[in-house]
Amino acid sequence: xxxxxxxxxxxxxxxxxxxxxxxxxxxxxxxxxxxxGEFISRLLDVHYDEAKRIQKDYWKAHGTSxxxxxxxHQVDPEPYLDYVHDIDYAPVDAxxxxxxxxxxxxxxxxxxxxxxxxxAERVLERLGVAHHFEGIYDIVAADYVPKPEMVxxxxxxxxxxxxxxxxxxxxxxxxxxxxxHALGMRTVWIRTPESTQRAQGLALDWIxxxxxxxxxxxxxxLNGRS
Length: 226
Fold this sequence. Notes:
Elements: E1 12-15, H1 28-44, H2 48-62, H3 65-73, H4 77-84, H5 96-104, E2 108-112, H6 117-127, E3 135-137, H7 150-160, E4 167-171, H8 178-183, E5 186-190, H9 193-198, E6 209-211, H10 214-222
Parallel strand pairs: 1-2, 1-4, 2-3, 4-5, 5-6
């Protein structure tokens, strides 16, 4: 890649949080996933295995388990979100290489997550990179509408004054990048074994770059190799 001119440099970077800013091997989602099942089991008074089946069905039908619980059972989202994010963050280590890369990137940096602000803050604090981010757009800001619904992409762009033509979005879930591409953003897919399996059969023609390691990709980008 040739060195970009100032006009071509991204003015904004939209980073997903989970399994993107930190490696999937940290496996925080396994903790969250288990607690979602526990919450549903207690709420509906069903066995944990049945709760996991319901969780999967709600995720498929509504985009998130929370959305299904809110729609079908009038669940208050705040206690749910507090419960499922009451996890151990110790697996997330500080990342000096990520800190260095973010420091060198031109443009504003925003976290765009289906999680909560507090969850994102804890992760960013563990990584040692919180000071690089202008804001966190979370599921509460999105009125509990999850990615990849187009309405939330339009909202984050409007709220932060982002020009999609000069923005890059990075996410581990391939379909979450499709609306970003449709708005004119460049896209980077952070592949994990799970997200790669989930993307089987998709055209993926909305993906500009893909990598298994965000930090490596950022350093390659900064060195003109992406």
